[in-house]
Design a protein that fits this description.
The protein has two helices and five strands, in the order αβββαββ. The chain has helices spanning 3-17, 56-72; strands spanning 21-30, 40-44, 48-51, 76-81, 97-104. The protein has a five-stranded antiparallel beta sheet with strand order 3-2-1-5-4, sandwiched between helices.
């Protein structure tokens, strides 16, 4: 079973059980990024994360935006910029930029 199937199965289970969840999907990537276009992560409020959009500070940024989407219901696209200098608070820099669509399911 692919990661995409695992994420979608978890999304279906969350919806069927009435749990609040957010689907995050990389829709654009440029340069060196930890994951590519189409990578998905489900943020299930009760059960945690399924899948990944890259980990680290970029994924943390997506999770923070997911809280806002969960509260207001309005989907948004978050730009994760991994081109910051090596002396930033998180020196694990890949050198690319990716956009993540965050939507409530």
């Amino acid at each position: 079973m692919t990661e995409t199937h695992i994420v979608f199965d978890a999304a279906v289970a969350a919806a069927q059980d009435g749990r609040r969840a957010i689907l995050a999907t990389i829709v654009r990537a440029k340069g060196s990024t930890p994951r590519g276009v189409g990578s998905r992560m489900l943020i299930d409020v009760e059960r945690g994360l399924v899948g990944t959009v890259g980990g680290g500070c970029g994924e943390a940024q997506v999770i923070e935006a997911a809280k806002e989407v969960l509260e207001h219901g309005t989907p948004q696209v978050v730009r994760v910029d991994l081109t910051e200098d090596l002396f930033s608070w998180s020196p694990a820099v890949c050198g690319g930029i990716f956009d993540v669509l965050i939507e409530r399911i």
